[in-house]
Amino acid sequence: MTIRKILLNNAPYHCSELDRGLQFGDGHFTTMRIVNGTPLFIERHLERLSNANQRLFINHSSFDSLAERIKVACSGVEKGVCKVILTRGNGGRGYRFSDDCIANEYIQVSDAPPAVGTVHMGVATLRLAQQPELAGLKTLNRLEQVLLTRECSASRYDDLLVCDSSGHIVEAIQGNVFWFKEGQWFTPDLSAAGINGIIRQLIIDEKLLAPLNIGCYPLNELAGAEKIIVTNSVRGAVAVTQFNDKVVANDELPSVLEQLI
Fold it and tell me: Are 56 and 88 in contact (CB under 8 A)?
């Protein structure tokens, strides 16, 4: 297919093909915290990117040297955030892609956001779609999160708990969620929807919160929770002090998670 013309903001855009990440959200990303020039948990982030490449059939021919490029980009940054975006590459107007597509790689380094001490959390009205083939992946298709963030901005809360179309707890807008109740920890199963965060998987692999139950839980399972925690790669772990306008009984982080702050 020959593209005759592309206009960007009504001005000629000189490119033979558009990035499929722009056209279709055909790609994925990861975001890591930088401390003293070091991207934290870089091996886990690389594993995430590699897994997503395989599941999405993305040909990233220079993946083996990606770690070095990330480290160079982060060098000299005392506190910051590194975002790595991989798209399938450039392609035509149709959904079908060629096996010859070579991935495009974007590495963005920015300042660290302000530290967050605690969170007041509500419950989102918008529900997440269930799609097991994409569940767990951090794809570029983030329109649900865009709309959820708008909903949160119009509320009185710092973050919102999000359920899927079946009413099961999935995650918060800003990370994965864990809660403590009756002597046990709980976190949602993400086999149908949601993002399997780096910190979430670290907690599971290292058994940092035990005993930990992973399953499908309705919203009322949070009633009477003694602790609620939100985790992500940039903030680490943050305690929820209020949930749906009710004070959570214990807002202190478990000492084992202090290393993640």
Answer: yes
